[in-house]
Amino acid sequence: LYDFDITDGGILEKNAIYLIPLMEELALPSSLYGLANPKSSTGRLDMFTRVIVDKGHRFDEIPRGYRGKLYLEIISRSFPVKVHAGLSLNQLRLTYAQSPTLGKQGLELKYKNHPILFDRNGFVIPFDQIKVESGIYISLDISGDQPESIIAYKAKTNSTVIDLSKIRHYKADEFWEPIYRNKKNRLILEPESFYIMMSKERVCIWPDWLAEMIAYEPNSGELRTHYAGFFDSGFGWNGTDELMNQGTRAVMEVRPHDVPFMVEDGQTFCRLKFEKVVERPEKVYGLALNSNYHSQGLALSKYFDPDH
């Protein structure tokens, strides 16, 4: 164990564990507690991060009335990274009550007026054609839209340091291996390798709701399907009440464990659970906020130049 100063920048080596005090402190009232999760750009870089509080019992959870410092545990799995004071790698949301996850009946009622899943052509996927069980399941796209479509990216072994203060700076092909569609529409995922993949469905999170992707589904496979699985209110919403051309593909940060894992096009892969927000936010995720992934396809983290 050793200490070092990151005020002017510090290198986090690959697969090493770091504990960094955050610049912010909290003084929560007794009515509020917090939930933290990595930002999308952090997860897509294969960085595993968790918030810790003094005398806390669970990662990424801040108890009601907490007053004190916050710490971030960081493990960069694929690449060494350079961090600076002031960078934001995680985000915090506050809640005053445990919001019940919508069950099948509640989801069906919501889905009639505000459909959540759309196909690649922008049409609503009927509720009776989706798998619903404590949330909505989405599937993998292994076929792409074109014969030569890139269906996934696999992280390369690369010792080049990625400076997290540089946006759209790095050439993607130096860090990522593109995986192209094949005739069998199948893909074998290698254990402890990291992949960026996307859903077959387009997902629309209407402004009065939010969603979270479950990281582990043992019945779907021995693998982690995301690091940053929080879907903000407004994700994939086009700003209208139209029931056409809504939705954005969900991108998954996939790391299989122990054994190779074969996936097929359209295979059920992960589950989204839904909660209602206290009130419709004035600002929602999307184009108006210049959100990084509001109209994404198979998008890498914002640190990579999409044109190279």
Relevant terms:
single chain, 308 residues, mainly beta, Deoxyuridine 5'-Triphosphate Nucleotidohydrolase, Chain A, 4-stranded antiparallel β-sheet, 37% strand, globular
Offer a concise description of the structure.
This protein has 308 residues and is mainly beta.
Explain the overall architecture:
The protein contains two helices and 23 strands. By secondary structure, the chain is mainly beta. The protein has two domains: 86 residues, Deoxyuridine 5'-Triphosphate Nucleotidohydrolase, Chain A (Distorted Sandwich), CATH 2.70.40.10; 202 residues, Deoxyuridine 5'-Triphosphate Nucleotidohydrolase, Chain A. It is globular. It starts with 9 loop residues before the first strand and ends with a strand. The relative contact order is 0.18. The mean pLDDT is 89.
